[in-house]
Amino acid sequence: MRRVAAASPSPRASGLTPAGRLPGWVRRVDAATPADRDRGADGLRALAILGVVLGHWLVTALVADSGTLRVASPLRHLPWLAPVSWIFQTMALFFLVGGWTAAAGHASARARGDSYGRWLRRRMARLCRPLIPLAAVWGVAVVVMLASGADVGTVRALAKLVWSPLWFLLVFAVLTAATPVAVRLSPVWPLAVVAGTDLVRFGLDGPAWVGWVNVAAGWLVPYCLGASWAGGRMPGRWAGWALLIGGAAVTALLVLRAGYPASMVGVPGARVSNQSPPTLAAVTFGLAQSGAALLLLGPLRRALSSRPVAWAVVALANLSAMTIYLWHQTAMIAVTGLGMLAGTPLPGLHTVPGSAAWVAARLAWLPVFGGVLVVYVAVFRSAEGRAEGRSVGGRAEGRSAEGRAAGRSVGGRAAARSAEGRAAGRAAQGSA
C-alpha cells in the first residue's frame, strides 16, 4: 500500500504551534496521528459531511399550516438559489473518499490474509450499526405522535424527511460489496452506462424506470475514481484539472443546451430531477467536484498538518460521520417542533420559503440546528461502535505493518488516555 508523505512537519515536531496553549484533547489527537496518515482525505470527507448537512438545512423547510407541518423547498419559489446546490451537493465527494477508503482497506485486509467475507462483515457492521438508535427513537416518536392525535400527514412528512436520505446507505453498501470489482474498473464504463441510460429515457422517450439504473452506475463513477486514487493510478494534478474543467464544461452544456435542470438537488414539482435518479448532468458535475477535491488535497494536507485544532475537529467529524448524517434532519425537526411552542410561526423556521427574507432568517437558525446536532452526536455517537476495524480516514485495518502502512486511527492511543481521547477516536483495524 502506498504511503502518504507528510505534507509538512507536524506542529508537535516543528514548534509551529505552542503545544502548551492547545487543549489537552487536541494535543492527544495530534500526537496519536501517524506521520503517514493522509489528513487531506479526512479533510475532504469532513467537507462532504458539512456540505450535505448545510445543504439539507438550507433547501428543506417545514411550513406550519393550521397546526400541521408540511415539507417545502425554497428552490421551488426561489430558482435563483440553484447555485446553492452546486456548493452543497457533495455526495460525489462521499463516494470518492468512500472508494478510496474501501479500496485501501480491502488491500490492507488482503495483505494480512483476511478473507473478503470477514472484511465485508466489518464494513457492513460499521455502516449499519448507527441505524439502530435512529430506528428506535423514531419508532417511539411516531407511536407517541399518532397516539396523541397528531395529523397523519405531518407524521408521514417528518418520517419521510428523516428516512429519505438513507438511500445513500443502501447504495454505499452495494458499492462497498463491489469494491474488488471497482478497483479494476475504469470509471469510463459506468459513465458510459449513465450516458446510455439518459439517451434512452430522454432522447428516445424510453420508460422512466430505466433511469434507476443510474442509481448504481452514477455513484459508481466517483467510487471508481476513489479506488483508482487508492491504487496510485491518478496521474498527478493534471488529472484533477482535467476532471474539473471537463466535468464543469460538460455539465454547463447539458444544462444550457440539453435541458437538464440547473439545480443539482431535487425540486418539488419539477419535471426532471438531477438526483432521483441521478442524471448525466449530476454525474458530470460530480466529476468536476472530484477534480476540485483532488486539487485541494495538497493544500488540505498542509493546512491540517500545521493546524492541530483544525485537524482534531476534522478527526472528530470523521469518527462521527454516520451519526452526523443520520441525525442532522432530526436536529432540524426538533428545533422546528419546539419553535411551535411560541404559538406563532417563526420566520425562517415555520414560514413559506418564498423570499430572500426567509433565506436570511434560515441562515440565523443554522447555529441552533448545529447546537442540537452536537447534542445528538454526543448521545448517539457510541453506536458507531468500538469494533476492531475503525479509522478516521479508513486507511487501516490492523496494527500489522501492512495496516500501519495503509493508515491508523488518530484516536487509538488517545482513547486509552482519557474521555477526550475516547471522543476523538478508537483503535483502528478497519475502515470507516
Structural key phrases:
two-stranded antiparallel sheet; 21 helices; disordered N terminus; 2 strands; disordered C terminus; mainly alpha
Question: In terms of topology, how is this protein built?
Answer:
Blueprint: H1 11-14, H2 24-32, H3 39-59, E1 61-65, E2 68-72, H4 74-77, H5 82-88, H6 91-112, H7 116-128, H8 131-147, H9 152-163, H10 167-177, H11 179-182, H12 188-203, H13 213-230, H14 237-257, H15 280-306, H16 308-319, H17 321-339, H18 356-380, H19 401-406, H20 412-415, H21 419-424
Structure description:
- By secondary structure, this protein is an all-alpha fold.
- It has one domain.
- The chain is built from 21 helices and two strands.
- It has helices spanning 11-14, 24-32, 39-59, 74-77, 82-88, 91-112, 116-128, 131-147, 152-163, 167-177, 179-182, 188-203, 213-230, 237-257, 280-306, 308-319, 321-339, 356-380, 401-406, 412-415, 419-424, and strands spanning 61-65, 68-72.
- The chain has a two-stranded antiparallel ribbon with strand order 1-2.
- The two termini are 17 Å apart.
What is the approximate shape?
A: globular
Ranges where pLDDT stays below 50 over 5 or more residues in a row are 1-16, 387-432
What integer is the average pLDDT?
Answer: 84
Kindly estimate the percentage of residues that lie in beta strands according to DSSP. under 5%
Over the alpha carbons, how many angstroms does the gyration radius reach?
Answer: 22 Å
Content-based structural category: mainly alpha
> In the residues, how many domains can be counted?
1
